[in-house]
C-alpha cells in the first residue's frame, strides 16, 4: 500500500533455556551423553505501522521497564533480562517521533508476558486479540490461587485484564482489517497466535511472533513450548505459502541473528 511504513522496535532481550525454542537443542546423544543445557539469547520486539488512513498501529508491546516488580517468581527464576534505557517503549516510539498516545490500534499476537508488557501505555487504543487465546488465558488465570499464579510462566493478570478503550476478538483470518493489513490466525504456540501481513509497496512483511520463534523452527525443528503440535505445523505451512505468494519477508518472534543481521530496526523502516 502506498505511503504505508513499518518499523521494527527493539524492546530488549533475554537469555532463556534453549529447548524452549528448539525442543531437542541439548538432547543427549551416544557421542555426548551428558550434553549441557544452555541459555539462548533472544530479543523482544514490536512492529509499528504508520498507516495513511488508520493512523499508528502497534503489533505487540514487549516487556515493561518495571518487569522485575510485576513478573511471577517462575518468570524471574527462568529468564535473565537485559533491558537498557534505549529499549523502553517510549524511547523506541520516540525514534519515529510519536508517543504512546499517538497509537490508535494495538494488535496482540498472543497474551504471553513478553508480548503484553506495555499494554497500560495504550489504554486509549483499540485492542485486537485472538478470541481463543483470550479464553485460554482467562480460564487459566481465574483458576489459579496465588501460589499457582507465582509458578505460572506465561501470563500477568494486570496485562491480560487491562482496561482499554475497546477489545476486539478475532476468531478467523481477517483480510483488510485495515487497508493493506491482513490478520492471520496461527495456532500452535498457543491456541491462536495472530500474525500480521503488511502489504507494503516495496517490501511486504509478515510478522508471526512466536508462531515461528527462530530460523531453526522455520527450517523444521519444532519448539519445546507448544500448545498444539499439529496446529503448529499447519501454521508453518500457511506462513510459507503466504511468504511465497506475496514475496514477503517473514519476521520471526525471537531470532537475535535475524534481528541484528537481516532486519531494519527503527528509525529505519520498511515501505
Number of domains: 1
Low-pLDDT windows of residues: none
Q: Work out the helix count.
A: 10
What structural class is derived from the secondary structure elements? Answer: alpha/beta
What CATH architecture do you see? Answer: 4-Layer Sandwich
Shape: globular
N-to-C span: 8 Å
**Cα-based radius of gyration, to the nearest Å:** 18 Å
Describe this structure in words.
With 271 residues, this protein is an alpha/beta fold. It has one domain: Metallo-beta-lactamase, Chain A (4-Layer Sandwich), CATH 3.60.15.10. It is built from 10 helices and 12 strands. It has helices at 67-70, 73-78, 89-94, 113-116, 131-143, 146-150, 157-160, 215-218, 229-246, 256-262; strands at 5-17, 39-51, 55-59, 80-82, 103-107, 126-130, 166-170, 174-178, 181-186, 193-198, 205-207, 249-251. The strands form 2 sheets. Strands 4-1-2-3-5-6-7 form a 7-stranded mixed β-sheet. Strand 10 and strand 11 form a beta hairpin. The N and C termini lie close together (8 Å). The mean pLDDT is 96.
Amino acid at each position: 500500500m502506498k505511503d504505508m511504513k513499518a518499523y521494527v522496535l527493539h524492546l530488549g532481550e533475554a537469555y532463556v533455556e534453549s529447548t524452549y525454542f528448539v525442543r531437542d537443542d541439548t538432547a543427549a546423544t551416544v557421542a555426548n551423553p551428558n550434553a549441557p543445557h544452555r541459555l539462548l539469547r533472544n530479543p523482544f520486539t514490536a512492529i509499528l505501522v504508520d498507516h495513511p488512513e488508520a493512523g499508528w498501529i502497534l503489533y505487540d508491546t514487549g516487556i515493561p521497564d518495571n518487569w522485575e516488580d510485576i513478573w511471577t517468581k517462575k518468570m524471574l527464576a527462568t529468564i535473565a533480562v537485559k533491558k537498557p534505557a534505549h529499549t523502553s517503549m517510549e524511547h523506541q516510539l520516540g525514534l519515529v517521533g510519536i508517543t504512546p498516545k499517538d497509537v490508535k490500534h494495538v494488535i496482540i499476537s498472543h497474551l504471553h508476558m513478553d508480548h503484553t508488557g506495555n499494554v497500560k501505555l495504550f489504554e486509549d487504543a483499540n485492542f485486537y486479540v485472538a478470541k481463543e487465546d483470550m479464553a485460554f488465558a482467562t480460564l487459566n488465570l481465574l483458576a489459579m490461587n496465588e501460589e499457582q499464579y507465582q509458578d505460572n510462566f506465561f501470563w500477568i493478570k494486570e496485562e491480560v485484564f487491562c482496561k482499554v478503550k475497546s477489545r476486539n476478538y478475532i476468531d478467523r483470518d481477517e483480510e483488510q482489517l485495515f487497508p493493506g493489513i491482513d490478520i492471520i490466525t496461527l495456532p500452535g504456540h498457543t491456541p491462536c497466535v495472530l500474525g500480521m501481513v503488511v502489504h507494503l509497496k516495496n517490501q511486504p512483511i509478515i510478522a508471526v511472533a512466536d508462531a515461528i520463534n527462530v530460523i531453526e523452527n522455520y527450517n523444521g525443528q519444532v519448539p519445546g513450548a507448544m500448545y498444539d503440535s499439529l496446529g503448529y505445523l499447519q501454521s508453518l505451512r500457511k506462513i510459507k505459502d503466504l511468504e511465497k505468494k506475496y514475496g514477503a519477508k517473514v519476521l520471526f518472534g525471537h531470532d537475535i541473528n535475524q534481528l541484528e543481521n537481516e532486519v531494519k530496526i527503527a528509525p529505519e523502516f520498511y515501505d
